[in-house]
Automatic annotation (TrEMBL):
This is Nuclear transport factor 2 family protein. It comes from Actinomadura yumaensis. Pfam families: SnoaL_2. Residues 28-135 form the SnoaL-like domain. Transmembrane segments: none annotated. SUPFAM superfamilies: NTF2-like (SSF54427). Gene3D superfamilies: 3.10.450.50.
């Protein structure tokens, strides 16, 4: 049986009371605020049950891949948190149309194993439905990240 015209068959969760007062851009901004505050668990409430995250990058980038559901989100942050410390993460511009929000930004991080640092540009493309994020396409300057991950140790250095 096929889905009715205009429907993809994706599971749709009931809208969140808080999300009902937020625009799609507001929901994305809230995700970044929660991430900045280290509250990944609270991000779960802004995601659909069948949330799908594609982080683009070559196979040698340890966190490149597809993450599904809230467990996938936790797995992503577990991998990243074991390798880098994010020092700065800033969305610089938002563009929204219909059910999509595109955020452009920069981030800086320190590689835990070597102390190497990098700053990179990124684009996040969110799809939302019913006040929840259903999909994230995550595009980074992975060349800069890989160069830092491959760098020799610089010693303990400042934190």
């Amino acid at each position: 049986m096929s889905a009715p015209a205009g429907e993809t068959g994706a599971k749709r969760a009931a809208p969140l009371p808080e999300a009902a007062t937020l625009t799609n851009v507001g929901i994305v901004r809230r995700v970044y605020e929660l991430f900045g505050g280290g509250d990944v668990t609270a991000i779960h409430e802004l995601l659909s049950e069948d949330f799908h995250w594609d982080y683009f990058g070559p196979p040698e980038l340890p966190w490149a891949g597809t993450y599904v559901g809230r467990q996938g989100v936790d797995r992503f942050f577990e991998i990243v948190g074991g390798l880098i410390e994010v020092e700065e993460f800033e969305a610089l511009q938002y563009t929204a149309e219909g059910d999509r929000v595109v955020a452009f930004g920069t981030s800086s991080a320190r590689v835990l194993a070597s102390g190497a640092r990098y700053t990179t540009h990124w684009v996040n493309i969110f799809t939302l439905a019913g006040g929840r994020i259903t999909r994230l396409l995550d595009v980074y300057d992975t060349g800069t990240v890989l160069a830092a991950l491959r760098a020799p140790s610089t010693g303990p250095g400042p934190r």
